[in-house]
Amino acid sequence: MKNIFLTVVIICALAVAGVGGTLAGFSDTERSLENYFEVGNMDLKVTVGDSQTLYDDPDVPAIVDAGLVWPCESQDFNWDVHNVSDNTTETGYVYMRIKDITHYEVYTTKFPEFERPEPEDVAENGGWLANKLTPAMGEWGQNSTLSDFIEILITYEQSIIVGNNTPWGGAGTVYLSDMIPDGWQPGDDPDTIKWIYLGELKGGEVGYGDIALHISNWSEEMWNARYDTNLAYFSDDLPFNDWLTNLFQNDGANFTIEFGLTAEPIPDHYLINP
To answer: What is the C-alpha separation between 162 and 272, in angstroms, rounded?
Structure first.
């Protein structure tokens, strides 16, 4: 009898020790609910002039609308870029570029199609000016050359980014045609057109910019220096000395301004101003 009792005690002890069976012990679980992963956003919008409207593609209006421009009068146009991202701690990088430059002849009520101002005709085809027979300089301006003479100044947050206007036409002058590679035509690879770095722009911030355009009076001396010619028909203190400016009467240039906002900087070899 004692042996049977001892055997039962040993079996119970082994069971408690976990030998030959499964034990019931303490346990607990907790759950973390409503976990999520959401991708943030980055969105660039543009305001033009005094308007407070935030524009997106394809509804951004023309920033530059300069008609009947007079030589030596700067045309200034302001614009703002808005990073409307919900994340106000992340930094974006804002850029702009100019592309799709084309040239054309301007027709007005006084000078309808195929009619040109007489001074332009004389400058292009030769003729009399102030009792001097000036030579034919050929077609300029509308003939894919006006952007070679439009001086450009781009500022951002009151800092000059591209160009120099002290003075216009002096050292450091940048022309509209400098914004695109030589020989580039609309429809060519847009990646070959370099960007202009403007600055950093965090979510919720606004950047203030301005673009100024200007065309100088082209004197014989300026033309000689640029094109290695020997024009000397008028004294440099006479207004007629600037007769080459007549080449650009009623000529126009059309172009696209594109803005970009990126989460990472664009590599320097894609920039005009690295």
So the answer is: 9
Q: How confident is the model over 169-208, as pLDDT tens digits?
A: 999 999 999 999 988 877 788 889 999 999 999 999 999 9
Q: What residues contact 243, with CB distance under 8 A and at least 6 apart?
A: 119, 123, 129, 134, 220, 233, 234
Query: Using alpha carbons only, how large is the chain's radius of gyration in Å?
Result: 36
Q: Coil, helix or strand for 82?
A: strand
- Tell me the DSSP string of 231-252: --SS-TTSGGGGGGGGGGTTEE
253-266 per-position pLDDT tens digit = 999 999 999 999 99
Beta strand extents in 22-105 (DSSP E only): 44-48, 75-83, 91-105
State the average pLDDT over residues 135-161. 92
Amino acid letter at 30? E
DSSP H or E stretch at residue 199: strand 196-202
Q: Which contacts of 186-195 are long-range, i.e. CB under 8 A and separated by 24 or more positions?
A: 186/99, 186/100, 186/101, 186/102, 190/99, 191/270, 193/97, 193/98, 193/99, 194/97, 194/270, 194/271, 194/272, 195/95, 195/96, 195/97, 195/260, 195/266, 195/270, 195/271, 195/272
Residues 6+ apart with CB under 8 A from 272: 97, 162, 178, 179, 194, 195, 196
Contact yes or no for 44/82 (Cβ under 8 A): yes
Distance CA 56, CA 63 (A): 13
Task: Please work out, in degrees rounded to the nearest 5, the angle formed at the alpha carbon of residue 132 by the alpha carbons of 130 and 134.
Answer: 115
Please state the domain extents for the chain: 42-270
Q: What is the C-alpha to C-alpha distance for residues 222 and 72, in angstroms, rounded to an integer?
A: 14
Report the predicted TM-score, pTM, of the whole model to 2 decimal places.
Answer: 0.86
